[in-house]
From TrEMBL:
<comment type="similarity">
    <text>Belongs to the biopterin-dependent aromatic amino acid hydroxylase family.</text>
</comment>
<dbReference type="InterPro" id="IPR001273">
    <property type="entry name" value="ArAA_hydroxylase"/>
</dbReference>
<keyword id="KW-0479">Metal-binding</keyword>
<dbReference type="InterPro" id="IPR019774">
    <property type="entry name" value="Aromatic-AA_hydroxylase_C"/>
</dbReference>
<keyword id="KW-0560">Oxidoreductase</keyword>
<feature type="domain" description="Biopterin-dependent aromatic amino acid hydroxylase family profile">
    <location>
        <begin position="1"/>
        <end position="343"/>
    </location>
</feature>
<feature type="binding site">
    <location>
        <position position="132"/>
    </location>
    <ligand>
        <name>Fe cation</name>
    </ligand>
</feature>
<dbReference type="InterPro" id="IPR036951">
    <property type="entry name" value="ArAA_hydroxylase_sf"/>
</dbReference>
<feature type="binding site">
    <location>
        <position position="137"/>
    </location>
    <ligand>
        <name>Fe cation</name>
    </ligand>
</feature>
<dbReference type="GO" id="GO:0016714">
    <property type="term" value="F:oxidoreductase activity, acting on paired donors, with incorporation or reduction of molecular oxygen, reduced pteridine as one donor, and incorporation of one atom of oxygen"/>
</dbReference>
<keyword id="KW-0408">Iron</keyword>
<keyword id="KW-0503">Monooxygenase</keyword>
<protein>
    <submittedName>
        <fullName>Phenylalanine-4-hydroxylase</fullName>
    </submittedName>
</protein>
<dbReference type="GO" id="GO:0005506">
    <property type="term" value="F:iron ion binding"/>
</dbReference>
<dbReference type="GO" id="GO:0009072">
    <property type="term" value="P:aromatic amino acid metabolic process"/>
</dbReference>
<dbReference type="InterPro" id="IPR036329">
    <property type="entry name" value="Aro-AA_hydroxylase_C_sf"/>
</dbReference>
<dbReference type="Pfam" id="PF00351">
    <property type="entry name" value="Biopterin_H"/>
</dbReference>
Length: 585
């Protein structure tokens, strides 16, 4: 992506190219007056309520991050303030893949969906929007301990191995978020999308690492509570940005459980209110649980199970051998003996690296059709190849120019003429190159070539297996299937209703003080009898200026709306209460 489309800074400059592809311009001028009114209502309501039930870092964070109650935040302004916290923010288009989302966090970059929910979904939306991201996530990162947890979560989470079903569920949730916020989507289409998600969630099979760590993310970063079970406080962004759930979660209808690694096994439904929430005693405990979970991942355990996870994922992944050699590609198959892998095979473009840096001459052009190698010990030799000194290697004829036949435990044989070897910085052999090579397993040929050189990986065991490449620059990671999920309409031309929202906004901000609020209300009452938010805004101004007749008429009109649309009752009552409280203040 061309960085001229967004304002960069030293933190964003460090982002790899494959993450920059998700960044889009915020286009602040596209926010309509109704969008601004939605932001203002939610923020006024949230700040008023959350000041009593949110963790103290929330209000402190609002001040530190410069997030305004009255205006949708400008990403550039946020970045100027976030840099003092060591963070940055970027605008993206709705949902992005979970691994990419977490990788942004690893770079101390907050991902913010720049769209904003429709008025119809003001209390809650499954779609990521700037209220959720900007008003939910951003303030809490002002807490250093939580910010460290978020970054560490990103580092570990982006290495979690997914399954094909994870991607299918991600696509389904993204689709629902788009159509639910798109104006005019038929209700039956939304219901069908929700049923499809429910079906997928009920048929996921054994949860992948990504599914499990997403559960931890949900029950902490999105829907976390902190403190005691008897008197918890809110810190999760999903709760901080949802008028409805921030109140619902504090009732006895929602079971409060002590946070532990068991939360990873508790799935969630993004389309429904949560029946239970987890309470962490403090932010430091989040990191403790995260490290406990990381200890269960193939990232740290490797082995046969880790390699099998990569094969099942059908995605680009990496194994690291005990020598430090890293093999990246799409893992296709393996051979095992006594519960240990003895041979692995990738398909398609593959690359070899050491310490996350690609080895010279071992790129995707060299291994365009895949890479396979035995691993483990040689038969009848107590010392593994990786631990052999140069004298040991020569004694066993593993030496330049020698034609040798190597028998590995498990039935793998490699026969060929040794051309050279590659060592790591500690002097250990990590790669041996053969010509005229043949690789077999119990007599079955796995590889054979006269002219093509064969590179045999050296390593007694797989110590790590994880999602993604070892060297980010080895592969083209750009997603050519990216499509816009933007659900907001451009405001190049305001509708009449939008124009009245703008008049009232301009009056409140002192840009146009000669308009008649009574006339605006009368027009709204006649032409847009179902609209409730603009009457709330006019009511607030009427109360502040002691226009009792106008305030009374608006209240009567809003009572009529409540009778016709009972689902708006709480929203309207809260808006009237906020206006009254502000006038008393």
């Amino acid at each position: 992506m061309n960085t001229s489309e967004y304002e960069s800074n030293p933190i964003l400059d460090k982002l790899p190219r494959h993450l920059r592809q998700y960044i889009k311009p915020q286009n602040y001028e596209d926010y309509t007056p109704i969008n601004q009114a939605v932001w203002r209502y939610v923020m006024r309501k949230n700040v008023d309520y959350l000041s009593k039930v949110a963790h103290k870092s929330y209000l402190e964070g609002l001040r530190k991050t410069g997030i305004s109650i009255d205006h949708i935040p400008n990403m550039y302004g946020m970045n100027r303030i976030l840099k003092d916290l060591g963070w940055a923010a970027v605008a993206v288009d709705g949902f992005i893949p979970p691994a990419a989302f977490m990788e942004f966090q690893a770079y101390n970059v907050l991902v913010i969906a720049s769209d904003i929910r429709q008025l119809e979904n003001i209390a809650y939306t499954p779609a990521p929007d700037i209220i959720h991201e900007g008003a939910g996530h951003a303030p809490i990162i002002a807490n250093p301990e939580y910010a460290a947890y978020l970054r560490r979560f990103g580092e570990i989470g982006c290495k979690a191995i997914s399954s094909a079903k994870d991607f299918e569920l991600y696509e389904a949730v993204r689709h629902l978020s788009i159509i639910k916020e798109a104006k005019g989507t038929p209700l039956d289409e939304i219901e069908q999308a929700e049923k499809h998600i429910a079906f997928l969630q009920d048929n996921m099979g054994e949860p992948s690492e990504m599914a499990l760590i997403r559960n931890l993310h949900w029950w902490t970063v999105e829907y976390g509570l902190i403190g005691s079970l008897e008197d918890p406080k809110i810190y999760g962004a999903g709760l901080l940005s949802s008028i409805g759930e921030s109140q619902w979660c504090m009732t006895d209808n929602v079971k409060k459980l002590p946070y532990s690694i068991e939360a990873a096994k508790t799935s969630f439904d993004i389309t429904k209110k949560q029946p239970q929430l987890f309470v962490t005693p403090d932010f430091a405990f989040l990191s403790q649980v995260l490290e406990d979970f990381a200890n269960t991942m193939a990232l740290r355990k490797g082995g046969l199970t880790g390699l099998q996870k990569l094969i099942n994922s059908k995605e680009l992944g990496t194994i690291e051998l005990s020598t430090g050699l890293q093999v990246s590609g799409n893992f296709k198959s393996l051979l095992a003996h006594d519960g240990k892998p003895i041979y692995f095979q990738t398909e398609g473009k593959s690359a070899l690296a050491y310490r996350e840096k690609e080895l010279v001459g071992q790129d995707i052009n060299r291994h365009e059709t895949g890479f396979g190698s035995p691993i483990g010990r040689l038969k009848g030799i107590n010392i593994p190849i990786e631990d052999m000194s140069p004298r040991d290697l020569k004694a066993y004829k593993i030496y330049e120019g020698e034609v040798i036949s190597l028998d590995f435990i498990g039935g793998i044989n490699v026969t060929g003429k040794i051309v050279t070897g590659t060592r790591n910085l500690k002097g250990r052999i990590i790669l041996i190159t053969f010509e005229n090579c043949r690789v077999t397993h119990n007599g079955l040929t796995l590889f054979e070539s006269d002219e093509e050189l064969y590179n045999m990986a050296i390593g007694e065991e797989i110590v790590s297996a994880y999602h993604g490449p070892a060297d980010l620059y080895s592969f083209d990671l750009l997603d050519l299937s990216l499509s816009s999920g933007n659900y907001n309409n451009s405001n190049d031309t305001y509708s009449e209703l939008e124009s009245y929202y703008k008049l009232i906004r301009d009056f409140r901000e002192g840009n146009n003080t000669i308009i008649s609020r009574t006339k605006v209300f009368e027009v709204i009452q006649e032409k847009y009898p179902k609209d409730w938010l603009l009457p709330i805004e006019i009511y607030e101004l009427a109360v502040l200026s002691n226009e009792k007749t106008l305030a009374k008429n608006i209240k009567l009109h809003l009572e009529t709306i409540k009778l016709d649309q009972p689902n708006l009752g709480q929203l309207i009552d809260d808006g009237l209460e906020l206006a009254t409280v502000k006038s008393l203040a």
